[in-house]
Amino acid sequence: MDKYEITVGTFNKLADAYQEKYMDDDFYFDTYDTFCELITNDNAAILDVACGPGNISKYLLNKRPGFKIEGIDLAPNMVELARINNPSASFQVMDSREISAINKQFDAIMCGFCFPYLSREDVARFIDDARKLLKNDGILYISTMEDDYQKSGFQTSGAGDQVYIHYHRFEYISHHLNSNGFKIIEVKRKAFPKEKGLPATDLFVFAQAK
Question: pLDDT tens digits for 34-50?
Fold first, then answer.
């Protein structure tokens, strides 16, 4: 198995535990609020990429119930949980590296912590694909873990479960956003609490398709 298969297998296995840990975690709520504030259409069509158990979709729908959300994730157990947690939304098993196959456009794309599981090349391709899926003036939310790419590698839990983490720098992401016709609206950073896991700097980028 390659690093993607191993990582997806881990998320599929630990879907219930992930849901328990993150479903009501308020650490990122302020960034979701910013995303909502940037979307003027109360009935906006939104794509939730790497939706996990639907924790972000649930927050968005609680805040803006008119949103029309479609979510994708490569782990079938995550998709099953997302459907249960968000009966008014639509979810399917799909690789974030294959969003070019989606035949519609969206008012906004939520990409919450998908980039840590994508290589630099896949990040560049995702940004290009995302621009094609967004309507003019559409909003793109990106969150990732910021550090030198060379530090990327497998992280192993005490139980032996593995995920491959890719670190990305803002400069790399911003370059590809700019070259694909995005305007960067806002950039935020948060220090991930040590008591919640490995020390890390979380990066949040809000961009608009132009």
Answer: 999 999 999 999 999 99
